[in-house]
């Protein structure tokens, strides 16, 4: 039995969600990645689907799976693959939620063969990945776009800058200051900031409860 409410208030709405980390290859056996489990994005996908939305979930490498008739899961590895998958459907969706922990950079050159430990030290040159939310945000028409932000200093100010830069409607600021929040934890402490800079600080909650809150914000937007 699902932990999410089933209002059907998102029926006929198409929601694109990014989730998980991205893996950026260094050579055939090594990559640059991060500790994102994908749980936040998968929970949002299920909550949206339970409320009647048609969901496209684009996930980087994650051990999670999802089984709901309203959810189409597209698995990708890299930020560029995630961008391409999102860009190809963006014009047809109503909502975009960027819950992925996208790698900001990728190795500029990927070695064809496994790198041998011949050198005493070596440098990997990195180049910037596309910013999925910023690119799609700046070409959006009617889409409602939700982003996440992870900050360690001037949290609110930096999150507001991301709203403007990426043309977001809502940002979910993850607070790392709380012991129970963040990567690998079952709980999150978030602050919602709207495009009008209205601020709402939420108490520590399970990731399922945070997912419900985010889906309720989407429902309110269409109410
Ligand atoms: N994001 C994205 N594509 C990227 C990087 C980030 O779509 N290449 C999205 C994330 O999914 C998240 C939001 O942008 O919803 C903010 O991500 P975050 O890492 O906090 O911000 P950045 O813009 O990458 O800036 P920085 O890491 O320098 O703080
Ligand atoms: Ca980043």
From TrEMBL:
A molecular function annotated in GO for this UniProt entry is: phosphopantothenoylcysteine decarboxylase activity
Keywords carried by this UniProt record: Decarboxylase, Flavoprotein, FMN, Ligase, Lyase, Magnesium, Metal-binding, Multifunctional enzyme
- Cofactor info, note text: Binds 1 FMN per subunit.
Its pathway, per UniProt, is:
Cofactor biosynthesis; coenzyme A biosynthesis; CoA from (R)-pantothenate: step 2/5; Cofactor biosynthesis; coenzyme A biosynthesis; CoA from (R)-pantothenate: step 3/5
One GO cellular component this record assigns the protein to is: phosphopantothenoylcysteine decarboxylase complex
Region called Phosphopantothenate--cysteine ligase, residue ranges: 15-223
Q: What job does the chain carry out?
A: Catalyzes two sequential steps in the biosynthesis of coenzyme A. In the first step cysteine is conjugated to 4'-phosphopantothenate to form 4-phosphopantothenoylcysteine. In the second step the latter compound is decarboxylated to form 4'-phosphopantotheine.
Q: What is this protein called?
A: Coenzyme A biosynthesis bifunctional protein CoaBC
Species lineage:
Bacteria, Pseudomonadati, Bacteroidota, Flavobacteriia, Flavobacteriales
In the UniProt record, what gene is named as encoding this protein? coaBC
Could you say which residues of the full protein are shown? 180 to 402 of 402
């Amino acid at each position: 039995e699902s932990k999410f409410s089933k209002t059907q208030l998102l029926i006929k709405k198409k929601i694109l969600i990014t989730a998980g980390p991205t893996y950026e290859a260094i050579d055939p056996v090594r990559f640059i990645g991060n500790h994102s489990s994908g749980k936040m994005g998968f929970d949002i996908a299920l909550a949206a689907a339970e409320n009647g939305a048609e969901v496209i979930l684009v996930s980087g490498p994650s051990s999670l799976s999802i089984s709901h008739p309203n959810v189409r899961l597209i698995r990708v590895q890299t930020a560029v693959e995630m961008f391409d998958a999102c860009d190809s459907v963006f014009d047809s969706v109503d909502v975009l939620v960027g819950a992925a922990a996208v790698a900001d950079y990728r190795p500029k050159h990927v070695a064809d063969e496994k790198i041998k430990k011949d050198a005493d030290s070596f440098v990997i040159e990195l180049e910037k990945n596309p910013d999925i939310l910023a690119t799609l945000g700046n070409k959006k028409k009617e889409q409602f776009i939700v982003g996440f932000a992870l900050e360690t200093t001037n949290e609110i100010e930096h999150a507001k800058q991301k709203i403007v830069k990426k043309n977001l409607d809502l940002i979910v600021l993850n607070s790392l200051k709380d012991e129970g929040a963040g990567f690998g934890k079952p709980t999150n402490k978030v602050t919602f900031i709207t495009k009008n800079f209205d601020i709402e600080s939420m108490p520590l909650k399970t990731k399922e409860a945070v997912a419900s809150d985010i889906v309720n914000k989407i429902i309110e937007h269409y109410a």
